[in-house]
Amino acid sequence: MSTPKKRILSGIQPSGSLTIGNYLGALKQWVARQEVYDCFYCIVDLHAITVPQDPTELREKTREVAAIFIAAGLDPQKAAIFVQSHVTAHAELGWILTCLAPLGWLYRMTQFKDKSAKQAQEESIGAGLLNYPTLMAADILLYQSSAVPVGDDQRQHLEYTRDLAQRFNHLYGDTFTIPEAMIPEIGARIMGLDTPLAKMSKSEASEAHAVFMLDAPEVIRKKMMRAVTDSGRDILFSDDPEKAGVNNLLTIYQAFSGKTREAVEADFANARGYGDLKKAVAEITVESLRPMQEEYHKLIHEPGYLDGILRDGAAQARAVADKTLATVKHNIGFLAS
Ligand code: AQP
Questions:
Q1: The pTM is what?
Q2: 237 Cβ partners below 8 Å, 6+ apart?
C-alpha cells in the first residue's frame, strides 16, 4: 500500500508585482515540490489588505499572480491553486485563532515592526497588520500541512504558527498537524539592489530596489547595472555587511544557474570588475525569466481560463479546509449547525 503524500501549503500576496525574491525564495521551490507533495498554493488577498490596496489594482494583481504561477510552472493538475478569500474557512479559523493569540507574541514579530514603522501615523496602522501571523497560521493549519515552503523572512511566522498550534492542541486536544518551515538552501533571502542589507520587497517604492518577474530585459539590465556594491574588486561570497551587494548579486546568479558556490566564483575569477558581474547577473536573470514572461503574456489574455483554474482550486481547498474547520468548531464547543 502506498503512503499518502505529505501536504504543503504556501501563499503569495497580490500586493504588487512579484519580484525575483518571491520567485527564488518561494515560487521556484513550489514548482519543484509539486511532483512529490500534495500541494496547496494560494494568492493571499486577505493578507494583502493588511495595508491599503486600490480595489481595481488588487483585482488585476490577483489575476496577474495567478498567471505568473502557471507561467512559472505550477500545474493545476498537480497542485490546488486558489484565492484565499474564495475559501471562507481562512477568515473563520483566523478569528478563532485570534482569540487564542497572546498580544505579546504578535508585537514581537519583525514584519509587524517593519511595516507599521512605514505607516505615517499610528491611527493608520490596521489591527490586521498585527494579526497577520494569526491569519497565516490559519492558512497553514487548515490544510494540516506538514511543511511550508517559504523564504527566510517567514521563519518567525512559522515559529509563531507552531506555537499557536501547540497551544490549541494543548487546550482542546490534538487538532492540528505541527508544520515545519521548508526554506531553500539558495535564494532564501534576496536583498534589495539599492539596499543590500534589507530584503527585496515587492511594495518598496524605489525603482532601483527590485527586479520584477515581468520587467523587460532592458529594465532588468538597467537595474542590475545600478545595483549598490562597494569600492573593492573581489567577487567572492562573503558575510561581511560591506560586501552585501556583491554577495547578493552572486546569490542571484547562483540561484538562477544552479551552480555551486565554487563554480560561481570560478566564473568570475577573471572578471575585470563589478561591471562584468552585473552584466552576467543581468543576462542570466533575463534568460531565466524569458520563457515565463512569454507564457505569462499568453495566459493573461485568457481570464476565463485563469478564473476556471482558481475556481477548481478553491473547490479542492474547501474540501480539506472545511473538514478541519468543522473539527475545530466541535473541539472548542460550538453547537453544530
Ligand atoms: N526577498 C526575498 N527573498 C526570498 N524570498 C522572499 N519572499 C518574499 N521576499 C523574498 C518570499 O515570497 C513569499 C511570498 O511573500 P509575500 O508576498 O507573502 O510577502 P512578503 O514576504 O512580505 O514579500 P514582499 O515581496 O516583501 O511583499 P510586500 O512588500 O507586499 O510585503 C514568501 O514565502 C516569502 O518568504
A1: 0.95
A2: 247, 250, 251, 261, 264, 265
